[in-house]
Amino acid sequence: MTAPNVRSYRILFTAALLFIVLFLAESARSQEKPLRLLTINVWSGLDYIGSWRMGEYEPADRRELRFQLLLAQIRQLDPDVVLLQEANPVSQFAARLSDSLSFDEIHQVCNAGIKFGPIGIPSNFKEGIAILARPTFGLKQYDVWKLSGSPGLYGDILSIHFDESIFSIVGKIRVGETPVYIVNVHLVAAIPIDSALGRSFSAYRDKEGLSAQEYESALQEWHEKAMYQTKEIARLREGLSELPANIPVIVAGDFNATTDSPTLKNFLSDGRFFEAMDPLSSPGESTTWDPRINENINFSMSIVDARGDAVDPYGRLSALYDAVPRKIDHIFLSSNFKREDAGPSRVVFDSAVNNIHASDHFGIAADIRMERVTVSSPKELSTVTPVNESTIEPLPIASYDTDTGIGYGAKAFLLNQLGLNESFDCVFFNSTEGERWYRLVFSLPDFELRQGKVFPIAYDLLVDYDKWIKNSFFGIGNGSRFTDREYYTREPLEISLAVSRGFSSFFVGQGGIRFKSVRNFNFTDTSTLVHLAPHASVSTATYQSLFISARYDSRNSYVNPTLGSVVQCDAERTFHTSPGNFQFTRLSLSLQNYSIVFYPTTVLALRWVAQGIIGENLPVQVMSTVGGNNTLRGSPQDRYLDKISAVVNAEVRFPLYWRFGGVVGLDAGKVWQKLGKVDLVRWATNPSAGLRLHMQTFVVRLDVGFGKETTGVYFNFGQIF
């Protein structure tokens, strides 16, 4: 080896060693990096006066300059989590800012008037609050709390309300494997009861010649809004008390109150929270509302609105109060943290650029050290964790279904009896209309334990026997007539073994083998089914198959989801070996989406399922069906039958009282003989309505489906999807 080659290798070795050292140092620094949180009221620029349109204090080009300044200042600050108040319109503002930062976002419409989408009155008003976070923190919406305001609807799709409403939105992030709740608050802009301010307003009354009625009206509104804020903080404390006590919580936002106000003294009185920024640590430098510096506040101090009209007497009192510098934006940490965990906290965005401030508020930024709290707090691991205890949950079954009659039986769920995280799910069910259903599912690990987790391998063994003594047959295709209904006995037996892998918390792949046998018998003398080919339709159809599936699942709950999506693709192929007596390929695609359309938590749930079977001379036992409890409520079970089927379900799920909820929906379905005949016309469509009882681990369901031929009543367990 020549000397230059030796020198080259030494240089490469030294460079590689230096790279490794720098990488390890950067990794250590990143592990110690505090969580940087920013809260900022971004100022709508509205005067909040007007029915058809709110008055605007600034033209669109200046509002755009403020947005670009805000974006630049956030980028320079480089926070991990951003809390916004007074964003208008909130959905577009939050989406634009989060896209520019490559952050995730959640938001809540708080005040909008009457809106369908972006259309309605006031035309330029759809204000709300939002939380943004880096994608690495996995931000998800956990809850929304309404703190004050009359009943109404509040959402991106539909908003209807007639007074000011105050909300708090709760997000959930994960720092490493530690969950942390982020609570964004924007309380009503109340003026604290203050004798000095009262004397100033009394002098203003004498100077400006306010009438006794105007003066008393302003005083009454002053006291009412102060009481609103007291009630809002009480409801905030109530919501916070319902969060798990051992999980860290960060509460931040525009409280419209100083730390020494009755509002925040009440909030901090039980010692559950403390302020990240000590107001005594930097006297004179901790104001977030400062008319001495921020020219945007001049609009709030004016006694005329954006149109130049005089404001009402309370507006004049508010103008007097807004001339006082104060700190009304705060970041509070739960007692899971210690005071030394609150690193450097400071007022930010308090400098003008080209004589423009980004908002009429300054922001508050806090660097929160997470090392200690992540060690002492519970973990939400991305992988399946062992269960320490075993459980047995027996459940009696009582149900009613138009197709099956009154049902009775029992369900038993056994978890971790073998110490392997496994579960046994057993069902024993009979009905007055002749259904006999016996089912055993063995899962290793348990399905619910691995939901939303990463896991290397899982097994599911299914044995299912579901005999229908009085099963219906109407014919093949959409043209089958209800008057041609005939009855026979259908006796299926299925045994399958599936092997799964959770590649991520959202994506699961699965493959397996299935044996299925379906025996049809007890036909009437006039049955048309006996004349259908092949003969297996009126005897026993048996097959073995291999199946694979891929599922993306981002639902926030398996039992009762309110947010998230599911995309699932399935393929099944039979193989021609004894005792199988025919071959086919089955393909299916299922899409589900859940979104909160307005508050109180009202969910729009959508499902689209398409299935097709490829094969010749196939018996009815393997064909796709539409109708009944889980597809087209209001139409009998298996009302439509053919090689291709599609079902669309749309439900609006809303709260009623306590654990009870309501549902209104629309089901649609159709079948086709081959792909070339698939169309979008003349689908069977049935409206439905129902009640739900939400328990801890399951949902009790009562539905009524209104079909053109029959009305179906279904009392059962679990959402339809």
* Range of helix content: 10-25%
Largest sheet: 16 strands, antiparallel, barrel
| Principal-axes shape call | elongated
Based on CA atoms alone, the radius of gyration comes out at 32 Å
CATH class of the largest domain: Alpha Beta
Mean pLDDT: 91
Description:
- β1, α2 (60-77) and β2 (81-87) form a beta-alpha-beta unit.
- The protein has two domains: 34-376, 4-Layer Sandwich (Deoxyribonuclease I, Chain A); 391-717, Porin.
- α5 packs parallel to α6 (262-268) and α5 packs across α8.
- The model is unreliable at 21-31 (pLDDT under 50).
- It is built from ten helices and 33 strands.
- The strands form five sheets. It has a 16-stranded antiparallel barrel. It has a six-stranded mixed beta sheet with strand order 3-6-2-1-15-14, with helices on one face.
- With 721 residues, it is α+β, with helices and mostly antiparallel strands.
- The radius of gyration is 32 Å and the shape is elongated.
What is this entry, summarized?
Helices cover 19% and strands 41% of the residues. With 721 residues, the chain is an alpha+beta fold.
List the helices and strands and how they pair.
Elements: H1 3-32, E1 35-41, H2 60-77, E2 81-87, H3 90-101, E3 104-111, E4 114-116, E5 119-121, E6 127-133, E7 140-148, E8 158-160, E9 166-175, E10 178-186, H4 195-208, H5 212-241, E11 249-254, H6 262-268, E12 273-275, H7 298-301, H8 313-322, E13 329-334, E14 342-348, E15 363-368, H9 371-376, E16 391-401, E17 405-415, E18 423-431, E19 435-444, H10 447-450, E20 455-473, E21 486-502, E22 507-521, E23 540-553, E24 564-574, E25 585-598, E26 602-614, E27 624-626, E28 640-642, E29 644-657, E30 660-672, E31 684-694, E32 699-706, E33 711-717
Parallel strand pairs: 1-2, 10-11
Antiparallel strand pairs: 1-15, 2-6, 3-6, 4-5, 4-8, 7-9, 9-10, 11-13, 12-13, 14-15, 16-17, 16-33, 17-18, 18-19, 19-20, 20-21, 21-22, 22-23, 23-24, 24-25, 25-26, 26-29, 27-28, 29-30, 30-31, 31-32, 32-33
